[in-house]
Write a structure and sequence with these properties.
The complex is a heterodimer.
Chain A: E1 4-7, E2 10-13, E3 19-25, E4 31-38, E5 42-51, E6 54-57, E7 65-66, E8 76-78, E9 87-94, E10 105-106, E11 110-114
Chain B: E1 4-7, E2 10-14, E3 19-25, E4 32-37, E5 43-49, E6 55-58, E7 61-66, E8 71-76, E9 85-91, E10 102-103, E11 107-112
Parallel strand pairs in B: 2-11
Antiparallel strand pairs in B: 1-3, 3-8, 4-5, 4-9, 6-7, 7-8, 9-10, 9-11
The chains are: A mainly beta, B mainly beta.
């Protein structure tokens, strides 16, 4: 089944403790993104990637890092989480070409609480 | 800086009625997307609009794009309870060259029986 898989789905952590949220897609998509969703703000893009080793900042990259060493994986790293990073996070992917190239597939989401 | 505004933010409507959600954006783009999010769930792609005048329809939903007015609409015909969800529009100002999307704040639609 074609899917975008995020782990963990729920995470409670404390300020300053490094964490990684993993994202993996099995559709051989070139493009991948991370978003955060906060009430009243919609979705805001954190980082995006257009292919292996090609990443760029979205609108709210501060406090986050990403890497794209393999096409299928796009982990989101919080080196020193702070309470203002408490949010719902979504990973998404889409193909770079073909008829479906504009269809973005979203993971199920990761709800993060930083205490 | 690209801004995307949706209105209304909240819409309560009765089954069988028609209504329109509006999505305005602030800079040139011919690439606009509509998504649906059910409570506690992820986002599902509804429509992709890629040119001025584009119109797409699926069931009771119809989306259109006017790039000159920088406006997209999502029209709901004869609403049913199953359409209750949050609807987002998103704009790509790069023409698809990058993956940078700006989302609207969403419209929470509640269809009452």
């Amino acid at each position: 089944e074609a899917q975008v898989t995020q782990n963990p789905r729920y995470l409670i952590t404390v300020t300053g403790k490094k964490l990684t949220v993993t994202c993996s897609q099995n559709m051989n998509h070139e493009y991948m993104s991370w978003y955060r969703q906060d009430p009243g703000l919609g979705l805001r893009q954190i980082y995006y990637s257009m292919n292996v080793e090609v990443t760029d900042k979205g609108d709210v990259p501060e406090g986050y890092k990403v890497s794209r060493k393999e096409k299928r994986n796009f982990p989101l790293i919080l080196e020193s989480p702070s309470p203002n990073q408490t949010s719902l996070y979504f990973c998404a992917s889409r193909p770079g070409q073909g008829l479906a190239k504009n269809i973005q597939y979203f993971g199920a989401g990761t709800r993060l609480s930083v205490l | 800086e690209l801004k995307v505004e949706q209105n209304p933010l909240f819409l309560s409507m009765q089954e069988g009625k028609n209504y329109t959600i509006y999505c305005n954006y602030s800079t040139t783009s011919d690439r606009l997307y509509w998504y649906r999010q059910d409570p506690g769930k992820s986002l599902e792609s509804l429509f992709v609009l890629l040119s001025n005048g584009a119109v797409k329809q699926e069931g009771r939903l119809m989306a259109s794009l006017d790039t000159k007015a920088r406006l997209s609409t999502l029209h709901i015909t004869a609403a049913v309870h199953d359409l209750s969800a949050t609807y987002f529009c998103a704009v790509d100002s790069s023409g698809g060259a990058t993956n940078k999307l700006i989302f609207g704040t969403g419209t929470l639609l509640a269809v009452q029986p």
